Amino acid sequence: MKELVMGKKGKEQTRGNQWPPAKKWIAASLAGVIWIMPVVGSEGAGWLGAGSAPVAQAASSFSATKLGEEVITSGAMMMKYKFKTVRSGKTATGLASVIRVDLNNPYVSVDVMSGKAGSLNTKQSTGGMAKETGAVAGVNGDYFNTSGEGAPIGGQVSGGVVVSTPSQLNGMYAFAVTKDRKPVIDEYTFEGMLTAEDGSQFPLSGVNKGAYNPEGGSSTYSHANAAYIYTDAWTALERPKNSSTTPTEVLVENDVITQISLDSALPVKVPKGAYILRTHGLAAQFVKAHLVVGQKLSSAYMLKSKTTQQELDPSTLQMMIGGHTILVNNGKASSFSRSTNSIGGYRARTALGYSQDGRYVYVIAAEKNSNSAGLSLTELQSFMTSIGVWKGMNLDGGGSTTMVDRPLAETATTLTFNTEYGKEQRSVVNGVGVYTSAPQGEVKGIKISGSTVLLIGQKASYSLKGYDTYYNPVDVAASNPVWSASGGSVTVNAGEATAVKPGTVNLKAASGTASAETKVTVLGGDDLSNLVAGVTSAPLQAGASVSVPVSAVSKSGATIAVPAGALKWEFIGFTGSVGDGKLKVEAVDPGVTTGYAIARYDGFSTAVVLSATAATAWEDFENTNYPFAFTTNAAGVTGSAAVVPGSAERAGSKVLSLSYDMTAGTGKMYAYAQFNGTAGKSIPATATSMSVDVMGDMSLNWLRAEVTDANGATAYIDLAKVIDWNGWKTLNIDLSGSGIKFPASLKRLYVVNVEEGQDERAKTGTVAFDNMSFVMPSLSSEAGLPKGTAAMSIGGKAMTVNGTKQPIDVAPIVKDGSTYVPIKYVLDAFGGNAVWDAKTKKIMVLRGAKALDLTVNKKEFILNGKRQSAEVAPIILNARTLVPLRLVTEQLGLTVKWEQITKTVTIES
After folding, report:
1. Domain Phosphodiester glycosidase: where (predicted)?
2. What angle do CA 91, 94, 95 make, to 5 degrees?
């Protein structure tokens, strides 16, 4: 979630700067450390523009429950919460993680983490910053201009060293901790002065700032007629980019001017320990009139509270980081100090706060993912007050919200929860890290580290890890622990466990007088919701080889690679083998056009359908004979969609290019590449997956496709939830669970910029598409299937197929309103076969591209590897197995009609 306050392009403007008299200045040497004078305590008002601050209303019916806590290090505790709230009459729930830091503990501290090597202009993930700096936990930090060089909007101080000064914006709060371990949340202004050797002076506007639009001044350009200092923390050559001004720059080393570049930037990075004074307009005139190479230049500046005017010597600051609106004051929800319109909605949230006695700092992150509904800002206020925050402020949130922590006894941090984009950690300009300086203590405890979920046949290594009296990791590997496991689901030898059968065991390790145990669950077939083969179709020809990795998805949502030894393969229609994760076709049975490779895991099955044609090239845009058009849903959105020559790696070919400009639009905005007017382009047969090459633009927008199916229903296909790449990339999309009825038509490919968190994503960009293909096994696997009509009457032992009557040995019956038939006769009439397993009482029905697994007396069934539920189950009657007719026929692509008067069932294909 970014606050975009960037410099505007346009004509340079000038304004006179009159320095206020009778100010108290603190001299600052810029040879190394920069000193400032910040302040304590105030409330602010406003957001981008004038107007009074909106009043934050406490979220009604909000509650938070602590789920548990675990020590990260001495003085830092990870606490997990579940929250519940009511939105528009409906209950929403979610999760939040809070790191509580005890400032009374001398070994723990909080500090600012920056980009790579602690510099600006080198954005890095929160986890990357924690790893680089040795933090035991951390969250993302300040807002920043996503199109800028990578500098925070607010102020930043670490160990008394000023990295960046606050921007001239209203209501932007900062969090600080003094070196005597007192937390402060306040709003600051910056004032500074340059003094030439001849005594002339000129105001200093800031340190290490990107271009932005100031508030409350006479200029809309931050760098117009202004002087800024850039230290060696600023690593970019541009100081800054998009400033709308032409610079005059001065290099100062050891307080002595060594270079002056008039009306142009110095073509160097800032040398270590030096700084570059960047000026424009009136400030540049000051340089030309008063600064000379070889002479001294001194500077002085400070931060001040907007309300109390109190000053705070930065040498006493342990850290400071900028943020956004104040959220909590005096233990209650505060009025927002800025408008929150652009950071509204229910999002992942990051915040900082402290307790009334100043002892605890609360580092807060609320989740927005499949497990959590996110929070509004008013709900965040309610959450913060409920956990004891006395004063708190908002940090950057949304897709940037990321928390990492070091689990007990581990040596590295891990992602505390999935971000809004899954496992992805967005690169940000800074963060807040938690650090420990505790010495190594005595061993306090041990824990077992390793997977808690296994599949039958899977081997997993477990290690014993220890933590000391300060809860920091300690090596206990040399202790040669004794391992054991209860029950018979797992065997263990020297820390290597082998899953034998479904069940849960206690895995235990003992070392001397210390011991630890953990629960390990071995999943059986009944614990799975999905069994996924790496491919759903393959070519049916001797010598063909295809990779078939198989993964299992548990009912809890965990995805695990299935060990080869845990799978049993069966081949129908061909002779084959599976080894080293590859399926090889050795010979095809005579007359067979469709084959099946069935993988079974503890009774749960999935199938790879083999046919003469596995993948169909659908559109490569080389010889298109139908039109494309750009369309949109929102006024103000413009763009183009056309087949154009490819460039770079696509040189010599043609691609479909979609360019868009949404800067003048509002709300949820779409940019469509429309195929063939309203008709679209036909997808002629059942498609189980699609593939498309996409040139991404790193816009973080959403990429989708729209299809109209055979019933006239519209289906939306997610190609990429986030366009988070540049250049070409192949996307593979599973369509087997899409519910699309084929034949269908692809109507359009499009980019979506959703309204929630819109400030995070680019509103302009270009994507391109090439080499679209669909896996349509039905083109061959169903090509030879019989077509026609079959009719059966309840109680009658005859079946009429395409007008010809033939006997059947078991009559259809009606039981509890459902019709049951022996599936053999349906398959004889319409193609396919059934495999019966007497031991497990399972029936696998294979027809075309469908593999249907049914179990007697169970309503659950498995279709192409996915567990689903029906209203009725197969039954055994008079030693014969009967299946629900409507369930089976509809899942196999057949239609059923019921005639009440004659009690006749008619099946058509």
Report:
1. 305-435
2. 155
429 and 371 Cβ atoms separated by less than 8 Å: no
HSE-CB at 743 with a 13 A cutoff on CA atoms is 8
> Residues 270, 275, 277, CA angle at the centre, nearest 5°?
110
CB 496, CB 429: distance < 8 Å: no
Is the backbone of residue 255 left (phi > 0), alpha (psi -120 to 50) or beta? left
409/447 Cα distance (integer angstroms): 7
Q: Which pLDDT band holds residue 597 (cuts at 50, 70, 90)? A: very high
The pLDDT of residue 35 is above 50: no
CA distance 436 to 470: 9
Burial class (CB in 10 A: 0-12, 13-18, 19+), 52: exposed
Give dist(CA 831, CA 848) in Å, integer. 8
* pLDDT of 56 over the 60 cut: no
Sheet containing 875-877: order of strands? 813-815, 818-821, 880-884, 875-877
Best CA proximity match to 1, nearest among 336, 320, 375: 375
Q: C-alpha 405: how far from its chain's center?
A: 18
DSSP 796-857: -SEEEETTEEEE-SS--EEETTEEEE-HHHHHHHH--EEEEETTTTEEEEEETTEEEEEETT
Nearest-angstrom CA–CA distance, 394 and 343? 10
**Sheet strand arrangement including 63-73:** 63-73, 76-87, 90-102, 360-366, 349-354, 391-394, 326-329, 332-333
Give whole-number Cα distances, 500 to 417, 487, 492, 497, 606, in Å.
Answer: 31, 11, 10, 9, 21
DSSP 200-230: -EEEE-EES------SSSS-S-TTTT-EEEE
pLDDT of residue 28 exceeding 80, the answer is: no
> How confident is the model at residue 219, as a pLDDT?
76
CA distance 571 to 577: 8
- C-beta separation of 409 from 511 below 8 A: no
CA neighbor of 115 nearest in space, from 217, 257, 236, 12: 236
Which residues does 860 contact at the CB level (< 8 Å), separation at least 6? Answer: 867, 868, 869, 870
Tokens, residue 249:
């720059």
Question: How far apart are alpha carbons 826 and 902 in whole angstroms?
Answer: 20
Share of the chain above pLDDT 90, in %: 62
| Pairing label, strands 183-196, 173-178 | antiparallel
DSSP 18: P
pTM for the complete prediction?
Answer: 0.73
State the pairing for strand pair 514-523/453-455.
parallel
Q: Are the C-beta atoms of residues 318 and 179 closer than 8 Å to each other?
A: yes
At residue 31, does pLDDT exceed 80? no
Handedness of CA 591, 596, 597, 599 (dihedral sign): negative
Contacts of 713 (CB under 8 A, 6+ apart): 741
d(CA 214, CA 220): 6
In tens, the pLDDT along 708-734 reads 999 899 999 999 989 989 999 999 887
Report the C-alpha gap between 236 and 240 in whole angstroms. Answer: 8
Distance (Å) of CA 642 to CA 658, 708, 799: 7, 22, 55
Are 482 and 437 within 8 A, CB to CB?
A: no
Residues 6 or more apart whose Cβ sits within 8 Å of residue 504: 487, 489, 519, 520, 521, 522
Cα 622 to Cα 75, 602, 645, 676, 730: the distances in Å are 64, 48, 9, 15, 18
CA 801 from centre of chain: 54
Looking at this protein, which amino acid is placed at residue 361? V
Q: Which residues are registered as beta bridge partners of 670?
A: 752
- Do 90 and 106 touch, CB atoms closer than 8 A? no
User: Is residue 150 within 8 Å of residue 240, measured between CB atoms?
Assistant: no
Query: Two tokens at 454?
Result: 């296994």
